[in-house]
Known about the structure:
Elements: H1 3-14, H2 18-27, H3 34-41, H4 54-69, H5 85-95, H6 100-109, H7 116-122, H8 136-151, H9 155-169, E1 174-175, E2 184-185
Antiparallel strand pairs: 1-2
Helix pairs in contact: 1-8, 2-4, 4-5, 6-8
Amino acid sequence: MLANDCLRRIRYILDLDDSGMIGVFAEAGRTVSRAQISAYLKKEDDEGYEECSDLLFATFLNGLINQKRGKQDGKSPAPEKRLSNNIIFRKLKIAFNLQADEILSILALADLRISKHELSAFFRKTDNRHYRVCKDQILRNFLMGMQIKLRGESQAEDEEATDEANAEAAPFRWKQSDPGSEPSKN
Length: 186
């Protein structure tokens, strides 16, 4: 997943405004402006979009850990220059102080079921023979599950319900019978 996508989702999940986002970066010792935050949160095809680097996103995640769990004594960990989904997942696990059973229940909220052994493989060191790469689908479903847990039902489910309600309220649906022919009532 792109760092910008994760940043947008985390902002929504935690209901952070620009000041809150700036505060998370500040927890990791990084100063960012409101304009930078705005540029990172825009969609890729929007004017003014700026890609959030792995280093900057790792700094944000470290700030989130510091904000949620408190700073550790001594020197703060340096942000990673290259992030993988496994590292992002691990940092979110640490920030929200989640145990394996809690993560599995969060994934279940997003209709993804995996075993405890599959989950633990994502958090192993890369040279461990049981290490598995965390694919975008896993991270995306984890973030969706966090959204459902912290904010209620997902936005996608709300949109589906709206679409279904609109379909039921419509007196009829248009159906294309043949390519190039006029639509007919069903």
